[in-house]
Amino acid sequence: MKLLLLTSLLFFAAQLMAKPLVVTTIRPMTMLVKAVAGDSVEIRQLLPDSEVPHHYSLRIADRALIAQADLLLWVGPEMEGFLSKSVTALRPEKVITAAELPDIQWLSPTPSSEGQADKSDPHIWMNPNNGRVIATEVSNWLAAHYPQQREQVLTAQQLFNQQLSVTNDKTAAQLKTLQQVNFIVDHDAFGHFAEAFDLHQSGALKANTGLSSGARDFHQLLSQSDVSCIIAEPRHNHGRVEQLANNLHAKTVVIDPLGADIPLSDKAYIQLIEGIGNKLTVCLSNTSERATLNHSPGE
Ligand SMILES: [Zn+2]
């Protein structure tokens, strides 16, 4: 009897000490959880940072992890289509679908979106305003489900909002005089960043689903004049970026929209936004030096 009591006490103690398990899909989602939850939750990210989210498929271990999650944070079916089926099997209150949050800011209407916001680009975290919306949702969710962490999480969220707004203003000031400068991207992941800071992207080599554009579109890009900068990405082959840069006499820069090179901390998301802003500022600015890209294998 005594032993049973002791065992159950130990069991409850372990339950109290176990941190909530938050499962995320890609690094920017991990960064946003980290920003508000710090070490008060255990975060497990499904995709290795080396993977392109558009072409991933779940492993058996991923499915087991998803089943154990107290909370699953993903962007949504447009970004992580491989997850759609698994998410429908989870209780809805255990899932935050970032793309479905009502305050998410989408791209300005295009002719094909008929006056409605353009929801075709799922790289929503590239707009710091959306980062704030997602982090707020995560902190509210944690505060509601783990009252003992409520104060800590809400304080962290406030601090994050303040720091993000400082970085946002600094980045906007830096880019202000560069808003009319044309740039082309390899993979179309920078639309939300361009929207947030009123920048002018004049084309993309790959659609926002990661698929390459055809020869005709490439020809259209080659015929552009006044392109100052072309953004390449790690995980993508740089061949066509170099070809385009040579033809257009444009500078190139490698920017990772997933921020895989940024150490994980509660500041990581802010550093991601700041880093993109800094690199773009250099690339769009009117200086003569042109960097050469390092080749990376495969697509
Ligand atoms: Zn992408």
Written overview of the protein:
It is a single chain. By secondary structure, the protein is an alpha/beta fold. It has two domains: 20-170, Nitrogenase molybdenum iron protein domain (Rossmann fold, 3-Layer(aba) Sandwich); 177-284, 3-Layer(aba) Sandwich (Rossmann fold), CATH 3.40.50. The protein has ten helices and eight strands. It has helices spanning 2-17, 27-37, 60-68, 84-88, 128-145, 150-175, 191-197, 215-222, 239-248, 268-284; strands at 21-24, 42-45, 71-74, 95-97, 182-187, 200-206, 227-232, 251-254. Strands 2-1-3-4 form a four-stranded parallel beta sheet, sandwiched between helices. A four-stranded parallel beta sheet has the order 6-5-7-8, with helices on both faces. Strand 3 (71-74), helix 4 and strand 4 (95-97) form a beta-alpha-beta unit. Helix 2 (27-37) packs across helix 5 (128-145). The longest helix is centred in the middle third of the chain and has 26 residues, at 150-175. It is elongated. The N and C termini lie far apart (62 Å). Bound molecules: zinc ion.
